[in-house]
Amino acid sequence: MSPRQKHKRTRTGCGRCRAQHRKCDEGKPRCKRCADANSACKYATTHVSFKANNSLTLPGDSGMKPTAYRAIEFRLEPEPRPMTLHNRAGNRAGNECAKPGIASPEPLQKKPSLIQDRGPPLAQKVSLSPAEIELLKFYSHHVAPWLDIYDERKTFGKSVIRLAMNTPPLLEGLLQLSAACANRPSENVSRRQAGISHFRSMMNPPSQELPAAALENIGCFAMARTLLFVDKVPDTWELGFHGNGAFLYFRKFEFSETAERDMWLAFLILLLRLEVAYCLMHRRAPILMPELISHILDQSDTYRTSADPSRQMLYSSLCCIKLLIDAMIFAFSPGEPIETESPAGARIVHWTELIEQLRAWHDCRPFDFAPLFESEAGDGFPAVLFSNGAAVSSSVLYHTAMSILLSCKPPESVPFSEALEMGSLCVQTESIIHHVRRVCGIAIYSESGCWDPLLIAAFVHAARQTVGAPEQRDILQCLRKVRVAGWRIDSLIENLGIEWLPID
To answer: Which alpha helices (H) appear in 304-411, and where do they start and end?
Structure first.
């Protein structure tokens, strides 16, 4: 009896033949068995092959014979796809437009980005409870507008939300801030290791930190600092910077993506606003802020000549903040007046330069910063209306800086009085009360979405200089409106009421 003939086993047959353990002739597009049965014939894109050039299976002491197959390799065969061309307008062209024998080029691989530049927020990346969804909506509608007060491109309302959807610690800080502004329990926000993220960033050597991690860390820090300003009364605000080491950190990173660079600058600007607000509320000189604002202006210098009006408005707002910082440093000091530390002649020259710079900013400010309507209202504050929040805040800061400088005007009898006469040409028809009334009028007639810590500090600074009973009543009424918007200013209203006890 002849030995049974062994059939050579194929491992590349179609799926139907392999399932039935039948030999497949591997015909394309259908093998003979599938064609006779009039059934679909599919070939697996992944199959097993055996490579003889790999290492042998090591034989053991058990006497087992080495396997005839040496090693297994998994190969993925790409499925053929039709070749399509696209014209400049984005319309698809048929295959007849392609030249024979020339394959279509592979699409360019986009550089990985920290956020999605287009499309809706990536909500599927994280899980949100119903309460957190409501907090996210509140942040988008009520918190992001004042965070983006100077930025018409809405970096906090768009890019930062998308970044938070991929960064759980940042999302936790964002939702905690929203809960504080909405007067809702912080227990509604799930913990997402924001504290661990801070600890990890402190433990990592600065030389090993990547820009992506730095953006996450400064975002978490900015949200935590803002939460302290929202969750505390203005009288108990605290400084966030106690040395200049942080500024070396800020200058270290560069971002190639525009959205990432915009978020980095937005976080720096937010921290700057908080520090200036604290110093203005407590009448302290922001001695560390000139270095930070100079760095921000250097990074955003292209905005000055940009064709985008929103970029120009942001840059002009930053210049106004810088002038306010310079005025505060000139007028305030931690302990004693600065005028005792510099010669009278140099001081009057410096004062004149600051006045001229403020007037130049006011004369050259963007067109959208001009008021839409202004009218004197008899005994009350002037009604001044603007078309956007950046114009409201920048105008308040301009008048605040002018009132600060005018309140510490050097005496005319000092040497170099001719320098003062040059400056008096700009301020001879103005007084401190003129700018104080402007600050109060702009703030009172502004929308609630314009209020941020810096505007609150400027408004309180001006309010303390008013003396008229009707005006003081208007100020208290305005502060009650701001309190309804979520700011913790009950004790501030109470203290002002005590100071103005005869009128309220």
So the answer is: 309-331, 344-364, 389-407
The structure tokens listed for 331 are 């007028």
Partners of 74 in the beta sheet? 48
Over residues 336-360, the pLDDT tens digits come to: 444 445 566 788 888 889 999 999 9
Interior angle at CA 185, CA 183 and CA 187, nearest 5: 155
Give the integer Cα–Cα distance in Å for 320 and 295: 15
236-254 pLDDT tens trace: 888 777 666 566 667 677 7
**Omega prior to 112 cis, within 30 of 0:** no
Rounded Cα–Cα distance for residues 13 and 9 (Å): 10
* 110, two tokens: 């986009």
pTM of the entire predicted model: 0.71
- Nearest C-alpha neighbor of 368 from the set 316, 320, 319: 316
Structure tokens at 12: 């590349």
Cα separation, 281 vs 290, whole angstroms: 18
Name residues whose C-beta falls within 8 Å of residue 419's C-beta, 6 or more positions apart in sequence. 345, 348, 349, 352
Q: Which helix (H) or strand (E) holds 165?
A: helix 159-165
Residue spans of beta strands (DSSP E) within 405-498: none
Name the DSSP letter for residue 104. Answer: P
Cβ burial of 212 (10 Å; 0-12, 13-18, 19+) is middle
What does the alpha-carbon distance between residue 381 and residue 377 come to, in Å, rounded to a whole number? 6
CA distances from 273 to 32, 86, 115, 235, 330 (A): 77, 48, 25, 16, 18
**Cα-based distances in Å from 330 to 333, 359, 407, 427:** 8, 17, 11, 18
